Structures are given as C-alpha cells and as structure tokens.
Amino acid sequence: MLSVYIHIPFCVNKCPYCGFYSTQYNSHLADRFLAALDIEMKSRFRDLQDRQVGSIYIGGGTPSTLSLAQFSRLFDLVNEHVAAAADAEVTVEANPNTAAAGILALLKARGVTRLSIGVQSFADAVLISLGRAHSAGDALAAVRAARSAGFGTIGIDLMYGIPGQTEQQWHSTLESALSLELEHLSVYSLSLDEGSRLTQEARAGRVILPDDDNVARMYQTAARRLAEAGYRHYEISNFCIPGRECRHNSNYWDRGEYVGFGPGAWSFIGNRRSSTIANVSEYIARMTNGINAAETTEVLDRGQAASETLLLGLRRATGIDLDHFGQQFGSAALDDLRKKILRLDGSGLYRIDHSRLSLTMRGFLLSNGALAALLP
Ligand code: SF4
Fold first, then answer.
1. How many angstroms separate the CA atoms of 294 and 263, rounded?
2. Distance 374 CA to ligand 1 centre (A)
3. Residues 6+ away with beta carbon under 8 Å from 160
4. Looking at the chain, which runs of residues are DSSP E strands?
5. Would the CB of 61 count as within 6 Å of ligand 1?
6. DSSP readout, 44-85?
7. What integer pLDDT is reported at residue 177 of this predicted model?
C-alpha cells in the first residue's frame, strides 16, 4: 500500500518539548507554502501516477491552524494530485484550541475519515507544565465538537512521564479519556528530543523528570486500564477499539511505502528513504525555483532493511512472521535471529507462537533493550 503524508509546518506557538519541525502560523506564509506544496505534489506524483493511495495523513505542526480557505485549497490539491482508493483512510491532526466547529465541518465535508486530537493530558497543571496552549476543558470540548460534526473515528494522544505529573493525575486523565468513548488512543512517554527547549532545561538540571519506575508504572496502568475497557493494545504506544487500527501508521510499521510532502516530511519508496528540507522558507524558495527540496537520501542495504523489519514489526502486538523474515533476508539472517532469541530464553521479553515472534508486555515495557538485543 502507498501512503501519503503531508506536513503542515505551522503551530500557534512552540511547545517546549517538541522536536518536530514547525514555525509560528502566519497567513501569508501559509498561502505561499500551499503554492509550493502544489508544485511539489505535481512534480513528485509524476513518477507515482499509477499508484493507488490507501491512506492520507495530514499532520504537522498543527494542520488546524490553517484557515477555512487554506484547508479548502489543501483538499483541492489532494484531489488534484492523489489517486486515493475509494476506501482510503484520511486522517487530520488537530489541536484542541484550533479545532473550531467550522474547521471540523469542512474536514467532514471534504472526506476526512479520522481525526487525531493532540490532547496530551486532562489535567490543567500538567498541560501548563508541558507548555500547551489549551486547557483540559478545551480538549473535552474539542472531542465533543468532533463527535457532533459526525466523526466516527476519533483518536487522541496522551503523554506520561511529564515533570511534576503524579500517578493520580495520570489515572484521572485515563478515566477522562475513557469517558469519551474514543476509537483510538496513542499513549506516549515524554521523550527528550534533540533541539527541544525541554531537553536543554533537563540537561541543565532545571527540570527534573520522573524516575524510570514511576514512568514504567504509568505505562502499565494505561495498558491495564485500557485493556479492561476493551481496547486492543495493538502497538507499543497505540490502543484501539478492535478494527479501528490506524491504517496509515500500520503501513509504517509494515515497512510499506509512503511519500511525504512539505518541509521536514519523510518518504520511503523502493528501499530509498529521503527527507525534505525542514525549513518552510527554504522549501518555498526551492519549489518556486524548481530545485529539489530533498535534504537527505539513503538507500538501505539488506542488513539495514532486516534491522528495520525487526524494529518496526516488533512494535506491533502481532510481531513478525519468522518464515517470512527468512524468505526476505535469507536463512543466515534467520539463523542469527533464532540464536539471539535462544540466548534470551527466560528473559520474558519475547514469545513465539507458531512462526510469529512478538514482544510480551515486559518486552513492550523494555522495548529499547528488547529490540536492540535482536538486531543483526
Ligand atoms: S507538540 Fe504539536 S502543537 Fe506543540 S509545537 Fe509540536 S507540533 Fe506544534
């Protein structure tokens, strides 16, 4: 399946923990960005004309900073350039303070099938500590407004391991999320992204992060509580009502092909991974002058492809098929993997069911070490 990602590089303001590329929204810059996006989509889809697209993901940044007219223009570009399958999944990310009723109605009318709302927490104190530009009340109102606008698949992101966050606050956040009867929840631990303000503060000792045991308990609480409520823990950080997995992200974990547009977007086509320059002004200049906007390009060799298959595939609860792994990468790679699994027998990190290898709950919890131990 081919997926399309479109990076909208604008936010209301920069959250101190964020490592994604974005800049402050400005209407004139957003108009110029959309004109550049038109040029990029036209040129790159020339080579992908016969490929049908199974999922489209409009992320960022904060796509919902765009005005109604700009969103309309964006969907016109998608319709013009992307050969989407009739049942394509179309996701848009929104933030609680920018998901106005008019925007939600437009997204619904233009065929968006999933809304992903960046809630992070339902505790105001935690939102302040994260530097988020919305309150818990805004988040609840945004989810309810999305439901009223007719969205049948709504997901939210929640975050734990935040400075000052208590286990009680995390528990209450999970209960608030459950009360909304959402179809999808992404539950991430706060990560220290290179270049973010929070990372600098933590390294300078001005911000104290919760200890590892505390963070692990929050993850386990989420996994247990969401499972009790009927959610399927289908990927290390993702939970859904059965059948409502995110198709777009599942394609990433399957090492499916995707083409990314906009500054800072990544593409993966035919074993070649590339990124587009993460600077909106430079992106606009290059597109306007007919210059390639790629920043990095890497063709993966067989060993890198095998490592990625393990790193991505084992993020999913269903894991990977060992026989298929052997067919893809050869019997020597499979033997090497089997030896590593054998050496870790008794660690409780993995399970093998018929020919499928997957991480256990303990493996999910210790995923960095569990995955690294299996790499070629
Ligand atoms: S976390 Fe989201 S809203 Fe905050 S700066 Fe990053 S992309 Fe923007």
1. 9
2. 33
3. 170, 187, 188, 189, 190, 215, 218, 219, 222
4. 2-8, 10-11, 23-24, 53-60, 84-94, 114-120, 154-160, 184-189, 232-235, 238-240, 257-261, 266-269, 272-276, 294-299, 320-321, 350-353, 356-359
5. yes
6. HHGGGTTPPEEEEEEEES-GGGS-HHHHHHHHHHHHHH--EE
7. 98
Please choose, from the candidates 150, 139, 144, the residue with its C-alpha nearest in 3D space to the C-alpha of residue 96. 139
**Ligand 1 atom index nearest CA of 19:** 6
For ligand 1, atom 6, name the residue with the nearest CA: 18
Give me the pLDDT at residue 209, please. 86
Reference 201, options 252, 163, 155, 151; nearest CA is 163
Ligand 1 centroid–CA 340 distance in Å is 39
Ligand 1 pocket, 96 CB below 6 A? Answer: no
Q: What is the mean pLDDT for each group of 10 consecutive residues in the chain (376 residues)?
A: 96 89 96 98 84 95 95 97 95 92 95 97 94 94 96 98 94 98 97 84 86 94 98 98 98 97 96 96 97 94 96 97 97 95 91 95 93 89
**Quick check: CB of 319 below 6 Å from ligand 1?**
no
Contact 6, 58 (CB under 8 A): yes
Q: Give the three-class secondary structure for 249.
A: helix
State in Å: Cα 193 to ligand 1 middle. Answer: 12
Closest Cα partner for 371 from 239, 221, 347, 256?
A: 347
Sign of CA dihedral 28, 30, 33, 38: negative
Closest by alpha carbon to 103, among 250, 249, 112, 16?
A: 112
pLDDT digits (tens, 9 = 90+) for 17-39: 888 899 999 999 999 999 999 99
The total of other beta-carbon atoms located within 10 Å of residue 265's CB is: 24
